[in-house]
Amino acid sequence: MNDKKPIRVMIVDDHEMVRRGLGLFIRGYDDLLLVGEAANGEEAIQLCAELQPDVVLMDIVMPGMNGIEATKIIQKNAPYIHIIALTSSSDTNNVTTAIQAGATSYLLKNVSDDQLANAIRAAREGQRVLSPEATQALINAATNPSKPSYHLSEREVEVLTLIVEGLNNLDIAERLYLSRSTVKYHISSLFIKLGVTNRSEAISLALKNNLV
């Protein structure tokens, strides 16, 4: 008989339906306990400080503070909290920056319930679990270190160009006829793909690599 305490799990995802589905999944296992939910990076940092979960299921692309930035801060403040990056993206840069930020594991959202449950159990023990796509991405990064590929969309290049020009979010929204929340989403995605945490770093990298 297993007398271990349930693994305290927190969910971080900006989509309510995803959080609801993950909550149902967690409740289906006796050794897992849902202790909290957050919709963005800022909330995740606050709740981690309050709830002290064992494992966090962290989305990567979210409006406001993205999952990479949140992971860095949580790991700095509480390195004993294990973070599983749970995302739809297998982009090489996303995988490498998530691992560099301190994520224990990297899984895609198409993972099965049992695979995710086992990854949570492994994470509590500090064991790394990577999806096959994430493993391949790390191999690609290791074998092609001199050729960064940021895979920016056409819209992300437009947003990055305007950031380099010095426009703020409101100006970018007006220039591209987008809502401010959409601009924030594109900037969050940009920062993840570029592996940066602020506008200055994004501008420096864009100019250095002729991205705009």
In short:
The protein is of the alpha/beta class. It is 53% helix and 13% strand.
Provide the CATH top-level class of the largest domain: Alpha Beta
**CATH T-level fold name of the largest domain:** Rossmann fold
Uncertain parts:
none
What's the CATH architecture name of the largest domain?
3-Layer(aba) Sandwich
Q: How much beta, percentage-wise?
A: 5-15%
Shape: globular
The CATH homology group name of the largest domain: Response regulator
Order of helices and strands: EHEHEHEHEHHHHHH
Number of domains: 2
Structural class from helices and strands? alpha/beta
What value does the average pLDDT take? 90
**How is the biggest beta sheet arranged?**
5 strands, parallel
What is the helix fraction of residues, given as a range? Answer: 40-55%
- The main sheet orders its strands as 2-1-3-4-5
Distance between the termini: 60 Å
Number of helices: 10
Number of strands: 5
Radius of gyration, in Å, reads 18 Å
